[in-house]
């Protein structure tokens, strides 16, 4: 049987990815995030968006390159750049039939995707021919506000979870609550055991002191 802790982590990861299934429109060619390594001076929101929202976007849109450029300059800007194909290029992209759910794009080979940087080596590039870019100023914004502006400017489709996924979410929450109770019980057991060991050690020291005094 698989370790319950591992099962919990796998379930939590799956739930986190499926909770907000966001499909980007085909005219979006790439995304670029630029923010500081540390959260100070207004970079907390961008950092949280990167950690909580971007993995879901990448999971459901694997073909869209998402480049992260970070630096040690907290006084600098924090921007999210969204690159759109122009009308002619977007018309050539595969479309989704009316009335059907958006499909996930095919995956671009990893070797062809740009690389991210933690040393400010990959700033947002200029739009190429047939592209336009829309930016979001993320500095001093909450991650939820960044997400809402992102959804508004991209026109992304957010699909609701299925009944099975909702059931998995409930299971994950139940496991989380039970894990908190188990941790509390285990902590009390360990604390009590350590307190008992300290008492025994003190008693042994006192007994040894009495023995030495009576010699």
TrEMBL record:
This is Ribosomal protein/NADH dehydrogenase domain-containing protein. Residues 186-213 form a coiled coil. Residues 38-157 form the Ribosomal protein/NADH dehydrogenase domain. It comes from the Eukaryota. InterPro entries: Ribosomal_mL43/mS25/NADH_DH, Ribosomal_mS25/mL61, Thioredoxin-like_sf. Its main location: mitochondrion. It comes from Apiospora rasikravindrae. Keywords: Coiled coil, Mitochondrion, Ribonucleoprotein, Ribosomal protein. It is found in: Mitochondrion.
């Amino acid at each position: 049987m698989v370790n319950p802790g591992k099962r919990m982590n796998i379930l939590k990861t799956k739930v986190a990815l499926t909770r907000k299934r966001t499909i980007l429109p085909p005219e979006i060619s790439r995304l670029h995030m630029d923010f500081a390594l540390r959260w100070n001076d207004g970079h907390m929101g961008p950092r949280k968006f990167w950690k909580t929202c971007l993995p879901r976007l990448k999971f459901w849109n694997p073909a869209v390159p998402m480049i992260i450029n970070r630096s040690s300059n907290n006084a600098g800007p924090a921007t999210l750049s969204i690159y759109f194909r122009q009308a002619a290029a977007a018309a050539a992209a595969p479309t989704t039939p009316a009335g059907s759910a958006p499909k996930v794009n095919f995956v671009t080979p990893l070797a062809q995707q740009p690389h991210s940087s933690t040393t400010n080596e990959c700033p947002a590039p200029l739009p190429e021919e047939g592209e336009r870019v829309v930016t979001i100023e993320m500095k001093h914004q909450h991650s939820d506000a960044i997400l809402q502006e992102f959804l508004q400017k991209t026109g992304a489709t957010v699909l609701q979870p299925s009944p099975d996924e909702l059931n998995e979410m409930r299971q994950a929450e139940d496991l989380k609550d039970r894990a908190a109770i188990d941790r509390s019980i285990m902590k009390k057991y360990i604390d009590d055991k350590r307190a008992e060991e300290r008492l025994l050690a003190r008693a042994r020291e006192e007994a040894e002191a009495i023995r030495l005094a009576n010699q």
